[in-house]
């Protein structure tokens, strides 16, 4: 169906863009200003059956409502908090994601951030590059092995993180309910934070988890505790986190996600207690290809008149 029009809401890999262009007329929506977008919709809105976007961006209800023939919002990622799935489904629009294929990479990065944070690896790298090793001794880090790890959200990614970290120390977890897993379930988040040396966030971004990690949870984590976030920025009250880091209320934080990406709060950037990454949890060559292939599988199903294989069922 080469005459099918698809709106591309954000940059995608060259591979994914090329494959999409074979299947449909691909319009780079993000290259157009608002006036051009409005003018285009006035004459073409009813021709769009597909939107391809990223989990960090999603698709607004206004755009969904403006596309009467839309059938699929294909998200290149696992997060769907930026799409009102109920609203989309109510208009006959499926929303698909790319589950499973990025689990290993996100879990690997969570472990890497944990080690980097406690062993101060970014600072150690700068220490050598700046020539300071010739003149002074690098400060001691903190031991990773033997620590107590708390996982918030034991879904696919949370379980993969727990399995990896169990090789370092005891693991417990918090979520909506207990899972079939060999780790202690803690129904009270504050208790989990109090009982953990490192609290790792792997939960979905929902209304219930918005600012879930607030000043009270950070206080429970305490001055010797560390926070690692590979979930979504909205799960953490960033102002409370900046305050806790500044006062020594927690020992440090490693973050791959932020509320207003691609920017990060100045207080987190300035702190010497943080280890920051630009939302790269799934950013490996292998995983991005696998994600693209899953996006394409969903698009191919749509074009063949089938339900996309990873369409959400909420």
TrEMBL record:
| Statement: the UniProt record of this protein carries the keyword Oxidoreductase | yes
Q: In what residue span(s) does the D-isomer specific 2-hydroxyacid dehydrogenase catalytic domain sit? A: 45-311
Give UniProt keywords alphabetically. NAD, NADP, Oxidoreductase
Q: Which GO terms describe its molecular function?
A: glyoxylate reductase (NADPH) activity; hydroxypyruvate reductase [NAD(P)H] activity; NAD binding
Pfam families named among the record's database cross-references: 2-Hacid_dh, 2-Hacid_dh_C
> Family, per the entry?
Belongs to the D-isomer specific 2-hydroxyacid dehydrogenase family.
This chain belongs to which protein, by name? 2-hydroxyacid dehydrogenase
Q: What organism does the record attribute this protein to?
A: Sphingobium psychrophilum
């Amino acid at each position: 169906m080469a005459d099918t029009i698809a709106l591309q809401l954000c940059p995608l890999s060259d591979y994914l863009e090329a494959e999409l262009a074979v299947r449909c007329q691909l319009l780079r929506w993000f290259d157009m200003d608002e006036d051009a977008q409005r003018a285009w919709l006035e004459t073409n809105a009813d021709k769009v059956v597909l939107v391809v976007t990223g989990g960090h961006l999603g698709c607004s209800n206004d755009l969904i409502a403006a596309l009467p023939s839309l059938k699929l919002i294909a998200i290149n990622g696992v997060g769907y908090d930026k799409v009102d799935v109920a609203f989309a489904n109510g208009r006959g629009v499926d929303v698909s994601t790319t589950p499973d294929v990025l689990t290993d990479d996100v879990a690997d990065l969570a472990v890497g951030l944990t080690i980097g944070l406690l062993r101060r690896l970014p600072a150690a790298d700068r220490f050598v590059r700046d020539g300071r090793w010739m003149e002074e001794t690098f400060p001691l880090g903190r031991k990773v092995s033997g620590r107590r790890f708390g996982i918030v959200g034991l879904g696919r990614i949370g379980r993969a993180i727990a399995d990896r970290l169990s090789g370092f120390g005891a693991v417990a977890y918090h979520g909506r309910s207990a899972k079939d897993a060999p780790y202690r379930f803690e129904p009270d988040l504050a208790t989990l934070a109090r009982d953990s040396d490192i609290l790792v966030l792997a939960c979905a971004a929902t209304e219930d988890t918005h600012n879930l990690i607030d000043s009270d949870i950070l206080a429970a984590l305490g001055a010797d505790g560390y926070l690692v976030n590979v979930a979504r920025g909205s799960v953490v009250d960033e102002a409370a986190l900046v305050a806790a880091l500044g006062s020594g209320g927690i020992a440090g934080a490693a973050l791959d996600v932020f509320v207003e990406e691609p920017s990060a709060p100045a207080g987190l950037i300035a702190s010497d207690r943080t280890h920051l990454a630009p939302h790269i949890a799934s950013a490996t060559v292998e995983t991005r290809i696998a994600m693209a292939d899953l996006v394409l599988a969903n698009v191919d199903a749509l074009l063949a008149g089938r339900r996309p294989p990873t369409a959400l069922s909420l």
